[in-house]
Amino acid sequence: MTTATITPGSPAHTLQRTRLVRLGWLAVALGVLAVLCVASLAFGARDVSWDEIVGGLSGSTSGIGESAVVKRVPRTVLAIIVGAALALAGASIQAVTRNPLADPGILGVSSGAALAVVIGIAFAGLSEPYTMVAVAILGAAVASAGVYTVGSLGRGGATPLKLTLAGAATSAALSSLVTAILLPRVDVLTLYQFWQIGGVGGADWGRIGVVAPILALGAVLCLISSRGMTVLALGDDLAAGLGERVGRTRLVGAIGAILLCGTATAVAGPIGFVGLVVPHVCRLIVGTDYRWLLPFSAIGGAALLVAADVLGRVIARPEEIQVGIITAVIGAPFFIWIVRRQRVREL
């Protein structure tokens, strides 16, 4: 019986080394996320000690610090799942559209979800969490279809530039409609002004329980399409020649992204640029294989949103800056850099 050996420098050795490097980076990313989660529990309007963190996690509410930790736990969990959802949605949209500028916010998907929620609240009095999530997903789907249809018009089909312009115009129009609906309704405007900015400050276990199964379904749809997303980068003709069902991969990936974006928007408001910044950074670390890129993007998105939430609580104490503002400050210069430094025809 012979034992196969891997020769240094061979393709198998290179593949094994690349896998080990990626696993190392995965461990680093998880470690960074864990540290940020501890920081999220420790810092806020009132800083708490390690003993108070341990006491709060064990269920104790005997002191002010322990009570603060108990309240911050669902907020941290919501930041993790929303950040992961937005990053996964962004990476998936970039894959199915072959557009490096794709992002749920830039392409108008988040604005479509936000408009649908506001219409439901203002005109139908929606208040049930499941109904709001369903309406947000419907709005995200309609906005996505509209942007893709407009971006596909003319010669060349749905190019990255046309999709970006169509998305930017759609996002601006839908945001204006949201403002027009809310301005005459002071009660609704006051209640949802922070939701419009995007934040995780109102987290509770009830809301998390509502959105977690839907986000899990969207994540599964994106992850099972990861191999097909990698092949799509070669072009539709070559992907089809390799046996990939291009239409099915795009449809499943798009449905997953819409579920993720619509649900995240319903629970936390329209938070921009997470789906743009995180996949690009992760691509520099693990490459363009979506079987690795999607999990890394999820961890990176969770870390970014937790970090933004902690930063927003620390720099303006005792007040807070919503995470939507922090991510916009980070993401806007990054978006400009991508436009100026990269050729954006296709991935």
From TrEMBL:
- InterPro entries with a match to the protein in the record: ABC_BtuC-like, ABC_transptr_permease_BtuC
Q: Which domain of life is it from?
A: Bacteria
Question: What PANTHER family does the annotation carry?
Answer: FE(3+) DICITRATE TRANSPORT SYSTEM PERMEASE PROTEIN FECC-RELATED (PTHR30472:SF1), FERRIC ENTEROBACTIN TRANSPORT SYSTEM PERMEASE PROTEIN (PTHR30472)
The record describes its membrane topology as: Multi-pass membrane protein
The transmembrane residues are: 23-43, 76-93, 105-124, 130-151, 163-185, 205-224, 251-278, 290-311, 323-340
Location within or outside the cell: Cell membrane
Homology family = Belongs to the binding-protein-dependent transport system permease family. FecCD subfamily.
Q: Does the keyword Transcription apply?
A: no
* This protein's record includes keyword Mitochondrion: no
Write down what this protein is called: Iron complex transport system permease protein
Could you list this entry's UniProt keywords, alphabetically sorted. Answer: Cell membrane, Membrane, Transmembrane, Transmembrane helix, Transport
| Gene3D superfamilies noted in UniProt | ABC transporter involved in vitamin B12 uptake, BtuC
A single Pfam family, by name?
FecCD
